[in-house]
Specification:
The complex is a heterodimer of chains A (about 120) and B (about 120). Helix content of chain A is about 0%, strand content about 55%. Chain A is an all-beta fold and about 120 residues long. In chain A, strands 2, 5, 6, 10, 11 and 12 form a six-stranded mixed beta sheet that branches. Chain A has a four-stranded antiparallel beta sheet with strand order 3-9-8-7, with no helix packed on it. Chain A is globular, with a radius of gyration of 14 Å. The N and C termini of chain A lie far apart (about 40 Å). With about 120 residues, chain B is mainly β. Chain B contains no helices and eleven strands. The chains are: A mainly beta (about 120), B mainly beta (about 120). At the A-B interface, β5, β6 and β11 of A face β4, β5, β9 and β10 of B.
């Protein structure tokens, strides 16, 4: 069965600190996709990144970076030099690609507070 | 271009009533998803459409919930005999393609349903 665990419920940092959001997933499929979404206070989910199970290369996009490790079933997200605008709830999600559909399972989210 | 839109933005109803929630996906997107998000939780998958057909409805909690997408564009989520536990934000998302591609889902702003 699919499962996504985000063990950190809330994280509070001071602006310019680096912060890592953890994500651990479970799946029996060999083909799957991992996602991170941001949900700011306005409420609308914003796509950040997608990774498929065959691509373990880490990715950097500006201040954001992602570390995908199949050996530990983890897909962690790091924000470097955090800013107040990064304050939001961040969701990790998993969808299995061979099931004939794209049922996507979300973690419970990590609420990030960045203080000025 | 226009994003995913959902109407109404808020719906207050009484226990036992019937409600319809509408989703207008991004033009050209063949895949459409419904999720439910309770306070402090991640989105919970309800149903996924590929075109007009429901490719995966395994997330619908019971037979009071039903969704249609008759022309492969707009979708309506229907809830019969609403219960207080149905209160949540109902999110719709669409993606360009579904099956066997690592698609990005674009989310709408959601409909906040309150059952009194």
């Amino acid at each position: 069965a699919q499962k996504v665990t985000q063990a950190q419920t809330e994280i509070s940092v001071v602006e310019k600190e680096d912060v890592t959001l953890d994500c651990v997933y479970e799946t029996r499929d060999t083909t799957y996709y991992l996602f991170w979404y941001k949900q700011p206070p306005s409420g609308e989910l914003v796509f950040l990144i997608r990774r498929n199970s065959f691509d373990e290369q880490n990715e950097i996009s500006g201040r954001y970076s992602w570390n995908f490790q199949k050996s530990t079933s983890s897909f962690n997200f790091t924000i470097t030099a955090s800013q107040v605008v990064d304050s939001a709830v961040y969701f990790c999600a998993l969808s299995e690609g061979n099931t004939g559909g794209f049922k996507t399972i979300f973690g419970a989210g990590t609420r990030l507070f960045v203080k000025a | 271009g226009a994003g995913v839109s959902q109407t109404p933005s808020n719906k207050v109803t009484e226990k036992g009533k019937y409600v319809e929630l509408r989703c207008d996906p991004i033009s050209g997107h063949t895949a459409l998803y419904w999720y439910r998000q309770s306070l402090g939780q991640g989105p919970e998958f309800l149903i996924y459409f590929q075109g007009t057909g429901a490719a995966d409805d395994s997330g619908l909690p019971n037979d009071r919930f039903f969704a249609v997408r008759p022309e492969g564009s707009v979708s309506t989520l229907k809830i019969q005999r609403t219960e207080r536990g149905d209160s949540a934000v109902y999110l719709c998302a669409s993606s360009l393609a579904g099956l066997a591609t690592d698609n990005e889902q674009f989310f709408g702003p959601g409909t906040r349903l309150t059952v009194l």
